[in-house]
Design brief:
The chain is mainly beta and 239 residues long. The chain has helices at residues 12-19, 40-65; strands at 2-4, 25-29, 32-36, 70-74, 84-88, 92-94, 96-101, 104-107, 113-116, 121-124, 127-130, 134-143, 146-155, 161-166, 171-172, 177-184, 187-188, 193-197, 202-205, 208-211, 215-225, 228-238. The chain folds into three domains: 2-65, no CATH class; 70-154, Sandwich (Immunoglobulin-like), CATH 2.60.40; 161-238, Immunoglobulin-like (Sandwich), CATH 2.60.40.
């Protein structure tokens, strides 16, 4: 005797009708159909049917997650070219995002979310436009929580932004602080410069960085004044 819950893929009565009478005889007991005189042949068919439903369910679940294993950003399609770029102010350069899946690579340039580390370079669906002279620009593409980036610079007329710190240098002690300053074409623009860090081991309050933890980080200063934009970055180590 074989028992089957009433919540099957389709009504049990219809399933058994497909198998042909009189293989099934049903009685209803406490919400459960009890199939009598169900020979081994039809029991095997039913078992295979249930297994197929389970396999399809698992396969569909994995299919719709669709999360890439990794993502790269390059100057060429399908992972070609370089992960560094240079663009002049007022000009554009095209970047491509390539996602790697277990089944192969896929161009996701138009479906990824793009972000630039500085307003001196804007990005829209991989197209980077130079706004102001800047170095250490990072452009990131993200898809389903997986990200990749390319680094570059914006070139043009002018000295650009120059950043420094007190104490000076690029190595700092864990638990210490440093005050960063910025000049643009020889003029102090520290108060008009925004500061960011690539890692939470360095956090900013205005232009004062506090270091907590050990490792490396990239400090970026971005200066924007009307149509003027400039940026610069410095790599630091905290130990």
């Amino acid at each position: 005797m074989v028992q089957c819950p009433t919540a099957c893929g389709f009504p049990l009565l219809q399933f058994c009708e497909l198998l042909g009478p009189p293989s099934c005889r049903f009685t209803l007991r406490r919400g459960v159909f009890i199939m009598r005189n169900f020979d081994r042949k039809y029991s095997l068919i039913a078992a295979v049917f249930v297994c197929l439903l389970l396999m399809i369910g698992v396969a569909c679940k994995g299919f719709f997650v669709n999360q890439p294993n990794s993502l790269t950003v390059t100057t060429g399609a399908n992972g070609g070219g370089s992960n560094t770029f240079t663009v002049a102010t007022g000009q554009t350069v095209k970047l491509y995002a390539t996602a790697t899946y277990s089944s192969g690579n896929k161009d996701v340039t138009n479906s990824a979310t793009w972000q630039s580390s500085t307003p001196c370079a804007t990005v829209n669906l991989g197209t980077v436009k130079g706004v102001g002279v800047a170095s250490g620009v990072s452009v990131t593409a993200t898809l389903n929580g997986i990200g990749g980036s390319a680094t570059g610079s914006v070139t043009g007329n002018g000295q650009g932004l120059v950043i420094s710190s007190t104490p000076s240098g690029t190595t700092f002690a864990n638990g210490s602080q440093a005050t960063f300053s910025a000049t643009f074409n020889g003029t102090d623009v520290t108060s008009s410069t925004s500061w960011t860090s690539s890692s939470n081991i360095a956090t900013f309050n205005n232009n004062v960085a506090s270091f907590s933890g050990t490792g490396s980080a990239t400090i970026t200063g971005s200066y924007v004044n009307g149509n003027t934009c400039a940026g610069a970055s410095v790599n630091i180590t905290i130990q």
